[in-house]
Amino acid sequence: LRRDIIRTAMAMNSLGINRGTSGNVSARWKAGFLITPSGHRYEDTKPADIVFVNSAGKPRGKWAPSSEWRFHHDIYRNRSDVGAVVHTHSSFATTLACLHKDVPAFHYMVAVAGGNSIRCAPYATFGTQELSNNALKALADRKACLLANHGMIATGAGLDKALSLAVEVEALCEQYWRALQIGKPKILSAREMSTVIRKFRSYRNRSRAPDA
Fold first, then answer.
1. Which residues contact 55 (CB under 8 A, 6 or more apart)?
2. Annotated catalytic residue: which of 68, 130, 168, 192?
C-alpha cells in the first residue's frame, strides 16, 4: 500500500494534474491512514517514508505527515465509503477555485463527483482545522470538491478510483473554463442530473463482474 501511494503521487505529476511537491495522497489503513510526508519529492520518497496517522490524529514515522493531514483524517473519520484521498493543485481546478466558483451541471459528467455540482469550499489557511471543516461541508454527498484559492480534493474507494476522479474533475474544470471564455454555459436541470446519477449507479452495477 505504501508503494501504491507513492505510485499514485508520481502519477499525479506525470498526468499533469500536479507539480513538484504540492498536493498529497493517502489511503485508509487499519485504524488510521497512510499519507505522503511533508515536503518530499515523490521521486525520492521510499515506502518507509510514508507516514501512518492513527485514529486520534497522531502521526507515527520518521517524517512529518503532509501539512494537509487534517482533512484526510476528518474525511476518513466521517466517510466510511472513502478508502483513499487525492489532493492536487491542478491548473484548471485551481483557477476556478481562485474565483470561488462551483462547477455546475454544464456537462452531465459532473455527476461523477456524486451530485449536480462540484462545490468550492470557502477559503481557509492550509493545514488548519477550519480548512478541514470547510472541505467536509463541500464534500457532503459528493466525492470531490474544490478548495478556494488552493486546489481540489478527490476521494474514492481506493487509490485508483480517487486518482481517476481527480483526472476527471480537472478535465471538467478545463471544459467549464473554456466554455466560460465563449459565453454562459447552458446548465442541465436538477431532474436531468438526477436521471444521470441513477444511470451512473446502474451502469457501475452492470459493469461489475458477477462475483464482485
1. 31, 32, 77
2. 68
Query: Is the separation of the CB atoms in 118 and 103 below 8 Å?
Result: yes
Encode the chain (212 residues) as per-residue pLDDT tens digits.
999 999 999 999 999 999 888 899 999 999 999 999 998 889 999 999 999 999 999 999 899 999 999 999 999 999 999 999 999 999 999 999 999 999 999 999 999 999 999 999 999 999 999 999 999 999 999 999 999 999 999 999 999 999 999 999 999 999 999 999 999 999 999 999 999 999 988 876 554 433 32
Which residue do the cell numbers 505527515 mark? 65
Contact 142, 114 (CB under 8 A): yes
- Distance, in Å, from the CA atom of 54 to the CA atom of 68, rounded to the nearest integer, reads 15
Asked about 174 being catalytic, the answer comes back as: no
